[in-house]
Amino acid sequence: MKLVAKPTLSIVTTSSPEGNAALSDAQLREWDITGPQYLSYPTADRFVEGFGPAQYRAALRQRAQGAVVGGAPPLALYVHFPSCEAVCRYCVCSCDGYRLITPHHRLGRDYLGWLALEVDLHHAEFGSVQPISQLHLGGGCPAYLDDNILRDLMGLLSRAFSLLPGAERSIEVDPRSASPERLRHIAKLGFNRVSFAVQDFDPAVQAATRRVQTCESVTELVAEARALRFESITVDLVFGLPQQTPETFKRSVVQVAAMRPPRITLHGYTQPRPHQRQRVQRQRHSETQALPTTEQRVHMLRDAIAGFTDKGYVYIGMNQFALPGETLAVAKRQGRLHRSLLGYSAQPECDLIAIGVSAVGCMGASYSQNPKSLPEYRDALAQGDFPVMRCLALSRDDLLRRTVIMALMCQGRVEFESIELAHLVRVHDVFVNELARLRELQALGLVHVNEQEIQVTEKGWLLVRVIAMVFDRHRQSDQARERFSRII
User: Could you tell me whether strands 320-322 and 263-268 are parallel, antiparallel, or unpaired per DSSP bridges?
Assistant: First the structure.
């Protein structure tokens, strides 16, 4: 196999708004489709039920054996809560029927008991307390649980896991149920990262989505988190919500930028898919309220990118922004950015243990997911087994394509020599069709392709998911798009 000389590494930072503005409204409308976010590859819709608890247990044992000889990667832990204190009308994340009929104090205690069983199963399999470099509590917004439940949760996790010095410890916070006192308690429990799910500040949008909080209250929470020296503070916004207009959303962008959170994430609202519509309908007073048009969504996204980059934020990718000194921005400049089931991270790639209803984890060359319904989750645990509903063992082709897709999503660049050495393939032989399709995107100015590399242009970074989809073998054989979120 003939290898080419290794070119000088160059990372696309994409921090200026001009490159993104080069995409015309017509181009953005053309790509107003749905597609994977590539938190994993293959994506979770490809997991199968034939791979269950026995296979997951084998993956845990393989990791434990690797740890003995120093071969295991770092370990991360994700705990999924299927509820919030109040259900938003547009949300499809809550566990069916659970939050709507169960008082939140009882919900927390009951659910904590089931989580304890799952934690103990992992501890028994490993046989020792496992060091972890990342802990994330999400779902839902678990920060609404009362102080005692949160304290007891951290206590039960300590039975099987030990946080390493400098570990990332993050929790998702609903500003409606948070207070400076609650943030102080979260800090005492050891959390050093918080994410505030704001979504929008316009009163009409908040009324339509049943998610009401003032800009002043969120500003106070961000200031308190900064005073408590949280290492990272994220504010989430959603565009495309009912009653939103480009003008109202632009005001929310200005308000969030004025708070100067180290990280900002934009999410594009996607209407519920057919299997989710009944769940959301139970939460709404009406079928569908006025949603922005495609043209309005395009302008919201364009204005938000310009608004945040004009204020000094670096565009990381996937509509995520960070201040230049924040760890994500530094990792991107240095080519150390990674993407996993937890999103973008400056941490090295790691195995992920995920516990709780519907939680998705990664162990070695396999993914696993717990049942999406609480009765199935409880039933599996009651049988004394891991509550694994479906999994996927990655093939050699999956691993190759995952490497390419993650390089595009994180660095915006695929260097053929490194791919060929790591996977013992020749890129130009394996990806004949894919490279031909990339030339079509090159004609649109989204990528540069030559004999040595693929480079995402500044213009193409906004559509990096479209570029990554070229290498998704499953998407090539199945063009159904309704299961994914919208790209624009």
Answer: antiparallel
What type of residue is 68? V
Q: How many other CB atoms sit within 10 Å of the CB of residue 91?
A: 18
SS3 272: coil
Cβ(92)–Cβ(367) under 8 Å? no
Separation between Cα atoms, residue 73 and residue 76, nearest integer Å? 10
- Could you list the pLDDT tens digit for every one of the 488 residues in the chain? 333 333 322 333 333 333 344 577 777 777 777 788 999 999 988 888 877 898 899 899 888 887 544 567 789 999 998 877 666 666 655 544 344 334 454 567 889 999 999 999 999 999 899 999 999 999 878 888 888 999 999 999 999 999 999 899 999 999 998 999 999 999 999 999 999 999 999 999 999 988 899 999 999 999 999 999 999 999 999 999 999 999 999 999 999 999 999 999 999 997 665 544 454 444 444 345 689 998 899 899 999 999 999 999 999 999 999 999 999 999 999 999 999 999 999 988 899 999 999 999 999 899 999 999 899 999 999 999 999 998 899 999 999 999 999 999 999 999 999 999 999 999 999 999 999 999 999 999 999 999 999 999 988 988 899 999 999 998 876 554 445 667 77
CB 44 within 8 A of CB 367: yes
The answer to whether 365 touches 40, Cβ cutoff 8 Å, is no
In sequence order, which ranges of 98-157 are alpha helices (DSSP H)? 98-101, 104-126, 147-157
Nearest to 143 by CA among 187, 199, 106: 187
Cα–Cα distance measured from residue 153 to residue 392, given in angstroms and rounded to the nearest whole number: 29
Tokens of 404: 């390419």
The answer to whether the beta carbons of residues 395 and 371 sit under 8 Å apart is no
